[in-house]
Design brief:
Radius of gyration: 15 Å
Largest sheet: 7 strands, mixed
Order of helices and strands: EHEHEEHEHEEHH
Helix content: 40-55%
Strand content: 15-25%
Structural class: alpha/beta
CATH superfamily: Flavodoxin domain
Number of domains: 1
CATH architecture: 3-Layer(aba) Sandwich
CATH class: Alpha Beta
Low-confidence stretches: none
Number of strands: 7
Length: 163
């Protein structure tokens, strides 16, 4: 049985909806156990014990969330050189473009010597005012379908040994 570790942080619910859809897609494959952990709860042993990863974050001020940064700060060196070559994917819930948050995670994953399994999946909510940014998010069904499909693809790749 392969383990897909999904580490996430969500402030307004958008990223959380995305990871739940991704986990649902991954759970459809009997050979994979998706493991969903909030960034504040994930530790280096969780990273080391997993076969592949999804890192999911809202984009805050054109960057990953503070809780995701804290997760990487706590886990980076203990996992360094112990997870080389494993696959990862990125989910970003953004108000505008999300590219910088995705790039930050990609740089960290490069340092961990992980292999990207897919391009970053960025969902743009177009929240631009303080009220819109702070409001609870509802992710569109089509975007949740994209997350579910990514979860299924990651699970299939793990089972087939592609990742």
């Amino acid at each position: 049985m392969k383990t897909l570790l999904v580490v996430y942080h969500s402030m307004t619910g958008g990223t959380e909806q995305m990871v739940h859809a991704l986990v649902a897609g991954a759970a459809d494959d009997d050979g994979v156990t998706p493991r969903l952990l909030h960034a504040s709860k994930a530790v280096a042993a969780d990273v080391i014990d997993a076969d592949a990863y999804v890192f999911a974050t809202p984009e805050n001020l054109a960057a990953i969330s503070g809780q995701m940064k804290d997760f990487f700060d706590r886990c980076y060196y203990p996992a360094l050189d112990r997870i080389n070559g494993r696959a990862y994917a990125v989910l970003v819930c953004a108000g505008s473009d999300g590219q910088n948050a995705a790039r930050q995670i990609e740089r960290i994953a490069t340092g961990w010597r992980l292999r990207p399994a897919a391009a970053a999946l960025i969902v743009c909510t177009h929240a631009q005012t303080p009220e819109q940014i702070l409001a609870p998010k509802t992710i569109a069904a089509a975007d949740l379908d994209r997350c579910r499909e990514l979860g299924a693809a990651l699970a299939t790749g793990l089972v087939l040994g592609v990742f």
